[in-house]
Amino acid sequence: MTISPRIARAAFSAALALLGLAAAIGGWGYGVAQDNGQIGPGFLPVTLGILMAVLGGIDVVLTLLRREPMNVIDELDVLGTEVDAAIDTVEESPDIDALGRTQRQRNRMLATVAGMLLVAVLLVPVTGLLLALGLLMLAVAIFVERRSIIASVLVTAVTVGVFHLVFGVLLRVPLPTGLIGFI
Amino acid sequence: MLENLLLGFQTALTLENVIWCFVGVLLGTVIGLLPGLGSTTGVAILLPLTFALEPVTALIMLAGIYYGAQYGGTITSVLISTPGEAASVVTTLDGYQMAKRGRAGAALAISAIGSFIAAIISLALLIALAPPLADIALNFQPVEMFAVMILGLLIVVTFQGGAFIRGALMAVAGLLVATVGIFPGTGSTERFTFGNVNLLSGIPFVEVMIGVFALGEVLYQIRIGAAEPIKARFKDMVIKRKDITDSMPAILRGSGIGFLFGVLPGAGSTLASFMSYGIERRVSKNRANFGKGAIEGVASPESANNAAANANFVPTLALGIPGGATTAVLLGAFTIFGLQPGPLLFETQPELVWGLLVSFFIGNVLLLVLNLPLAPVFAQMLRIPYGYMYPIILLTSLIGAYSVSNNMFSVWLVLIFGVIGYIMKELDLPVAPFVLALVLGPLFEKALVQTSAIGKGDLGVVFDSPIAVGVLALAAVLVIVPKLVGPIRSRIAAIRAPSEEDAGLR
To answer: How far is B310 from chain A (nearest CA, A)?
Structure first.
């Protein structure tokens, strides 16, 4: 099942509107004005929260009614269309990319890379930052990009080595080494 | 003035600074031409690498990346109709048509020459304008600064090229994110920190930028898919004298338009290039060939985006208000090095300011020398598939973010804002208003608190200042006029259309 961009956009704006409301309510608790009459800690969160809720609400309505608000400068709109057309002339079919991957495969790749990223960051306390990100790079090269294992290991080793030299040795950034305590 | 320039040359012409300037413009050219990387991403992820350098050297290198990327972005626009930089988008129209007719060399050469001339003109204007503006700004009280910041925010929302409501929504979201942390008015009240000590000083915007621009872009590119590796051929780099003379008016007009838009806080080089192309298409003698490979259609926007890139430094240096997204990251770099951009910077750090300004001149000479003969070599970089690049971008982003504060919290912030950045790109929501508002947020609130203190709680004190009223009136005009122009123009067109039809019938 795919969500239409219109619904996704409306949902995002609705989420922002709700976030705005939450910020306004939270901000109210901090106090909108101080005892001396000057603005308090909650003034800006309340004002911006209400503004965000209103703007988000308007955007939801406009998006669902399919009434795109007027572009500010018509000229840019026309040019934008022309540029899109010019770029389209050299683009591949939108569904299959140059490596023959379908949109579905690419969506899966995106989810895989995002998941690997999360795992890599969670691994940092164990392996250390450089090693965790090295493993991420290796996993992306082998499992997502389907590169040969030897080439992937070599490229990863060289990259991790360069990063260790630049950040660890040259810039003396105290990179977390984790439980392993290697690099 | 001459003394300052001399000081600038003394600072910028040391061997170390020239080398780092060269490194910056070279990296900038490469970053600009690689699709998926832009000057903002480039400056954000390479910022941590400059921590070991002297502040002036680091800023010279980072600024080099910024304007180097304007040159690099052109190469892809001309050769493969895929702009490497947003500011080069409009160059695809005539640049790619020229390339298809075997005139890629002339297109790249005129864009390098145009960019150089524009950079020099805008640099002269920048040197002439920034110090007096800083002098005027020294007299600005919080009330006036508050008005200038409203102007900056309104400009970015109005001219970001999309719908006003969404731009405003993103700007408000950015300002709201900036309220996280301790309230500047009391110095003790925590807001939205949820007991996390890392949030006490607010959400650091360098990490946000790395997340939104680098990680968000990587995720987006993965979903978009790989483009065909490029086989850029280059037959000749010869440009005829006639091409240069034909393009000169376009270059000069582009430089002027670019500077005007670049000076406005919040407007950027992308808008400048679009406007300059639009105007050139109306006034050029060769307007019939626009869109079919007119050399003026390359010269004008390329001059404009470079002029705007330099002009962006006027509000950044003189007012401490970034001109665009990349100068917003550079503003972050200033603060990391313990410098506060703004009117006082010209008095307290003349060596740094003038060294930086003069380095633009040196950088642009280097870029011209690099780009005229080496464009075909740079074009070979386009053969590298994105699949090889993005794992390295991921590593650079996360390690770079960590090294900004030596804290894993920064890495988590990059992940969170990377996802947000991806969603924004996927939903075509404007990023610039969000980023600029995030950068301006703390300054905006500080000015608001001070204004409230001056007015003893009454914010209407803003209207007691003629300067603030003038600035706010300008902001109102900038918002309202474009909204009126569109309907009026279509009404005039509607009136004209039947009368032209009648004329045709007769």
So the answer is: 22
> Is B54 in contact with B95 (CB distance < 8 Å)?
no
Q: Give the C-alpha distances (Å, rounded to integers) separating B260 from A161, B88, B256.
A: 46, 18, 6
Query: B411 near B204, Cβ under 8 Å?
Result: no
**Which candidate, B357, B278, B359, places its Cα nearest to that of B312?**
B357
Amino acid at B198: N
Q: What is the mean pLDDT of residues B365-392?
A: 78
Predicted pLDDT of residue A115 = 96
Q: Does B9 touch chain A (CB under 8 A)?
A: no
pTM (2 d.p.): 0.81
Q: Which residues of B fall within a CB distance of 8 Å from A121?
A: 398, 408, 411-412, 415
ipTM of the complex: 0.86
Which of A51, A59, A76, A105 should one mutate to test binding to chain B, selecting the residue with the greatest count of B CBs within 10 A? A76
pLDDT range class, residue B224, cuts 50, 70, 90:
confident
Nearest-CB residue to A23 (from B80, B176, B411): B176
Tens of pLDDT, residue by residue over B96-130, are: 888 777 787 888 889 889 989 998 898 888 888 88
Q: Please indicate whether, in this complex, the C-beta atoms of B226 and A33 are within 8 angstroms of each other.
A: no
CA distance A59 to B80: 36
